[in-house]
Specification:
Largest sheet: 7 strands, parallel
Distance between the termini: 9 Å
Mean pLDDT: 96
CATH architecture of the largest domain: 3-Layer(aba) Sandwich
Number of strands: 13
Strand content: 15-25%
Structural class: alpha/beta
CATH superfamily of the largest domain: Glycogen Phosphorylase B
Bound molecules: ligand GMT
Number of helices: 15
Low-confidence stretches: none
CATH class of the largest domain: Alpha Beta
Number of domains: 2
């Protein structure tokens, strides 16, 4: 099949998922055309079946706001016509679903039918899309998509709750390439981070408010009252300066390291003993799933779709949002002895395997065939 995929190219989960999906489909022989404003971060190296089309947004002194959506829709039309694209799959509703609708109408006038699949990822529904500045367009363009998918049952429910949706939303859970993440930890790297055998705790996110990264630091501070540990904070975003400032005020701040944006998560995660995700909301929590694939148990909140991937007392624990004491207690329950930690690690891997790329990508492929 010839498929066009539209996504955000940045470190967010929707862009990661869309890129990994495109790569997996290309491996299966499909031609994948990525349409984004920058090379997606997870798209590196040459692949004969992958084509990257950059959306250029010409500016003009009149524009305070360059019309990205218009440029995107025009690029979609151009790529679809010139590459015989059979299907347009957009990830994250805003503004991709609206641009897809526009492209579909333009192509229809030229006698070309192009089915559109919109995959909802989270904040496009729960945070940004609900805003009344956007919601009429988001609602309309979701209803005009041929197929709507959501990455969790929770996100499907949230979408029905917050928008008037006239069609069935299909749930296709996110996935992880377990083989890629399940690597042996590099001992030398572990020693650099934790020279005295301290436990290594990791958090990764885009440091937005919804992630409550300050809670990660608070939980960590409670853990090190009982056992020596190191905290690695991966990623970057608007809350990072604030989180850095509260870390500087902590007595044991030397135990916390900010590593910034990292492309090779599969090299870092395997050295971790625990992954912390303290979010106010996660439609799914792809970062937690990648940690589990690297055999890392997860301490998370029970918000949104997290209970669909984390199993309390098996591969991690879940607490109410903001319950720092409970999260610290649960972390210590996992880290207290090697036997318990090893059991949780094994369970984390077993749980991640349920969401392995090999199980989920064929579901997208079957959907594509049906729609085309
Ligand atoms: O987490 C973010 O803020 C980024 C956002 C995105 O769209 O890039 O992530 C959302 O989509 C991911 C992939 O489907 C999910 O794993 C995340 O849970 C979801 N984030 C939220 O719902 C806050």
């Amino acid at each position: 099949m010839n498929i066009a995929i539209v996504c955000y190219p940045t470190f967010g989960g929707s862009g990661v998922l869309a890129t990994e999906l495109g790569k997996a489909l290309a491996d299966k022989g499909h031609n994948i055309h990525f349409i984004t404003y920058q090379q997606p971060v997870r798209l590196s190296g040459f692949h004969a079946n992958i084509f990257y089309h950059e959306v250029r947004v010409p500016t003009y002194p009149l524009f305070d706001y360059p019309p990205y959506e218009t440029a995107l829709a025009s690029t979609m039309v151009d790529v679809i016509i010139n590459n015989n694209v059979e299907l347009l799959h957009v990830h994250y509703a805003i503004p991709h679903a609206a641009a897809a609708y526009m492209a579909k109408q333009i192509l229809a006038k030229q006698g070309k039918r192009i089915p559109v699949i919109t995959t909802l990822h989270g904040t496009d529904i729960t945070l940004v899309g609900r805003d009344k500045t956007y919601s009429p367009v988001v609602t309309f363009s979701m209803n005009e998509s041929d197929i709507l998918t959501a990455v969790s049952d929770n996100l499907k429910e949230e979408t029905y709750k917050n928008f008037v949706i006239e069609k069935e939303i299909e749930v296709i859970h996110n996935f992880v390439d377990v083989k890629r993440f399940n690597k042996k930890p590099v001992d030398a790297f572990r020693k650099v981070v934790a020279p005295n055998g301290e436990k290594i705790i990791v958090h990764a996110s885009n440091f937005r408010k919804v992630k409550r990264v300050d809670d990660v630091v608070k939980v960590f501070m409670k853990i090190i009252e009982t056992m020596p540990a190191k905290l690695l904070l991966l990623g970057d975003g608007p809350e990072r300066p604030y989180v850095e400032s509260i870390c500087r005020d902590c007595v044991l701040c030397d135990n916390i390291k900010f590593l910034g944006k990292q492309e090779q998560m599969e090299d870092i995660l395997p050295i971790a003993d625990l992954f912390l995700l303290t979010s106010e909301y996660e439609s799914f929590g792809l970062a937690a799933l990648e940690a589990m694939a690297a055999e890392v148990p997860v301490i998370s909140t029970n918000a949104g779709g997290l209970p669909e991937i984390n199993i309390d007392g098996y591969c991690g624990y879940m607490s109410n949002v903001g319950d720092i004491d409970d999260m610290a207690k649960n972390a210590l329950a996992i880290l207290k002895d090697d036997a318990t930690l090893l059991q949780f690690k094994a369970n984390a891997l077993a749980q991640a395997k349920k969401f392995d790329i090999e199980n989920i990508v064929p579901i997208y492929e079957a959907l594509y065939k049906r729609v085309i």
